[in-house]
Amino acid sequence: MAIEAGDFKTGLTVMVDGDPWQVIDFMHVKPGKGAAILKTKMKNLKTGSTQERNFNASTKFEAAMIEKKSAQYSYSAGDVYYFMDMETFETYELDDAHVGMNKYFLIEGMDVILQIFEGQVIAIVVPDKVELTVAETTPAIKGAPSSQTKDAVTDTGLSIRVPQFIEEGEKILVSTSDGKYSSRA
User: Fold this and answer.
1) Residue among 109, 117, 113, 114 nearest 127 (CA)
2) H/E element holding 97?
3) What is the pLDDT of residues 75-129, one digit of tens each?
4) In 3-state terms, what secondary structure has residue 47?
5) According to the 3-state scheme, what is the secondary structure of 4-63?
6) What angle is formed at CA 86 by the lines to CA 85 and CA 90, rounded to 5 degrees?
7) How far, in Å, are 8, 62, 74, 110, 172 from residue 132 at the CA level?
8) How far is C-alpha 23 from the geometric centre of its chain's CA atoms?
9) What is the pLDDT of residues 139-174, one digit of tens each?
10) Is 92 within 8 Å of 114 (Cβ atoms)?
11) What is the pTM of this model?
């Protein structure tokens, strides 16, 4: 199925130069003269790299056939992360480049979605929000406004800004889309 660049949506996966690419962000630009162009920020799902690319709005692309499979995060060893298909008990390995920022949201036993292209696992999708424990933070400053934030580090190693009232050992919800504090758990 052909997809025109003018029909791009965030999260869409298309084939560009033989590799599957996911649209992260896009913007239509209409210069004073000539055809409209589409400025995009895209992620190569095979290599994990991101690029900003420009396309003519009428350029056509093939949709990338990405298979999605449920799995459970097992553990990590060095820069390798292990996931298990709970139906077939098949184990999948992903390196640090393909896991990316999601490594800060992985908790043993967590259900994730594996994205598979041509039999190879190329990425994972984690839940929208995850519950993490605050491992390090400074004590609250007495008299500080409630809107003031402070630095904290979670048990997974994520550095984050949290409200003054959050203390060490407390469980918080973190948005996986931007890695920001959402609420107490």
Assistant:
1) 113
2) helix 96-99
3) 999 899 999 998 999 999 998 888 888 999 999 999 999 988 888 888 888 999 9
4) coil
5) EHHHCCCCCEEEECCEEEEEEEEEEECCCCCCCEEEEEEEECCCCCEEEEEEECCCEEEE
6) 40
7) 34, 39, 17, 12, 6
8) 12
9) 888 887 878 899 999 999 999 999 998 999 999 999
10) yes
11) 0.75
